[in-house]
């Protein structure tokens, strides 16, 4: 992993794909909320826990370079949320020599503010797409209620994409090309999706918030308390764990500052997680 304030969080090369995890923000989150209904005595061993029960967390986005295409997964907070933060996706992109107009696809795992706030940016009194050459891909069921309500987040972060012909709504699993595909993983939100990267030399899975921290993989029954459906979230997480174990895929946990790249194996019904190597 490279040094420097705006260096990538982690980088991996996989077959013909280069995967770069870019930092948008740092923060903390309640361990009790992330690992509900476990007690602190159950979830805390081995973790660095503040006295108030908070854990360090990263808000990241994944840059996929494969097959001549540049795909960005999630867009961070953008320029109007968490304006006090010291990092941003666009600065992190610039640090790796990438401009917003270089992005061909933007995939949104879901529409929470730390993942979709940066889909657009302010321009005068209005909003325009941040990535002006990109097609934005999101599950239709993820935005349906927001679209029907015509709420502020829809009007500012998604209606401009419609107006510019850049919003692509999908239903369920689907491949974008030979390298990148979306897999519906509902539960954290109604239309949450993971992103699958396939290469001749191996696969990778970007989890979004299917696992907020790597310990959610070790204990898939521990679930964020704010999930849209606890039952579906746990079911989706178990399914991805089984897939990752079967295929040997690199699993990317974007919020985990200490263990963002891991591999998963199954020992009976129990998931065993090991750290995966990263590029220097």
Polypeptide structure, described:
By secondary structure, this protein is an alpha+beta fold. It has one domain (10-275): Metallo-beta-lactamase, Chain A (4-Layer Sandwich). Helix content is 22%, strand content 33%. It has helices at residues 31-34, 40-43, 89-95, 113-116, 140-149, 152-163, 215-218, 230-247; strands at 10-14, 17-30, 54-66, 69-73, 105-107, 120-123, 126-129, 135-139, 167-170, 174-175, 180-184, 193-199, 202-206, 250-252, 261-267, 270-275. The chain has a 7-stranded mixed beta sheet.
List the SSEs and their pairings.
Layout: E1 10-14, E2 17-30, H1 31-34, H2 40-43, E3 54-66, E4 69-73, H3 89-95, E5 105-107, H4 113-116, E6 120-123, E7 126-129, E8 135-139, H5 140-149, H6 152-163, E9 167-170, E10 174-175, E11 180-184, E12 193-199, E13 202-206, H7 215-218, H8 230-247, E14 250-252, E15 261-267, E16 270-275
Parallel strand pairs: 4-5, 5-8, 8-9, 13-14
Antiparallel strand pairs: 1-2, 2-3, 3-4, 6-7, 10-11, 11-12, 12-13, 14-15, 15-16
Outline of the structure:
This protein has 280 residues and is an alpha+beta fold. It has eight helices and 16 strands.
Mean pLDDT, to the nearest integer, reads 95
Number of discrete domains: 1
Give the H and E element order: EEHHEEHEHEEEHHEEEEEHHEEE
CATH topology: Metallo-beta-lactamase, Chain A
- Contiguous runs where pLDDT drops below 50 for at least 5 residues: none
The number of distinct helices, counting runs of at least 4 residues, comes to: 8
CA distance, first residue to last residue: 5 Å
Helix content: 10-25%
Oligomer: single chain
Relative strand content: 25-35%
Secondary structure class reads alpha+beta
Which outline best applies?
A: globular
Name of the top-level CATH class: Alpha Beta
Number of strands: 16
Spatial strand order of the main sheet: 1-2-3-4-5-8-9
Say which CATH homologous superfamily is assigned: Ribonuclease Z/Hydroxyacylglutathione hydrolase-like
Radius of gyration: 18 Å
Question: Sheet bearing the most strands, described?
Answer: 7 strands, mixed
CATH architecture: 4-Layer Sandwich
């Amino acid at each position: 992993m490279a040094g420097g304030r705006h260096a990538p969080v982690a980088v991996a090369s996989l077959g013909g794909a280069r995967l770069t995890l870019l930092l948008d923000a740092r923060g903390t989150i309640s361990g009790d909320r992330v690992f509900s209904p476990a007690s602190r005595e159950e979830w805390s061993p081995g973790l660095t826990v503040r006295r108030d029960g908070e854990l360090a967390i990263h808000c990241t986005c994944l840059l996929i370079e494969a097959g001549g295409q540049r795909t960005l997964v999630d867009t961070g907070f953008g320029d109007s949320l968490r304006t006090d933060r010291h990092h941003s996706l666009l600065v992190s992109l610039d640090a790796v020599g990438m401009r917003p107009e270089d992005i061909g696809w933007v995939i949104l795992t879901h529409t929470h503010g730390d993942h979709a706030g940066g889909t657009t940016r302010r321009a005068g009194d209005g909003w325009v797409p941040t990535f002006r050459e990109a097609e934005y891909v999101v599950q239709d069921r993820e935005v349906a209620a927001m679209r029907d309500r015509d709420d502020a987040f829809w009007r500012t972060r998604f209606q401009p994409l419609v107006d510019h012909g850049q919003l692509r709504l999908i239903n369920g699993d689907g491949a974008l090309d030979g390298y990148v595909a979306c897999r519906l993983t509902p539960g954290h939100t109604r239309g949450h999706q993971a992103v699958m990267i396939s290469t001749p030399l191996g696969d990778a899975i970007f989890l979004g918030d299917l696992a907020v921290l790597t310990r959610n993989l070790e204990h898939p029954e521990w679930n964020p308390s704010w999930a849209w459906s606890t039952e579906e979230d746990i079911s989706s997480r178990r399914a991805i764990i089984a897939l990752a174990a079967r295929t040997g895929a690199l699993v990317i946990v974007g919020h985990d500052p200490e263990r963002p790249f891991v591999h998963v194996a199954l020992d009976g019904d129990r998931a065993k997680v090991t750290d995966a190597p990263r590029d220097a």
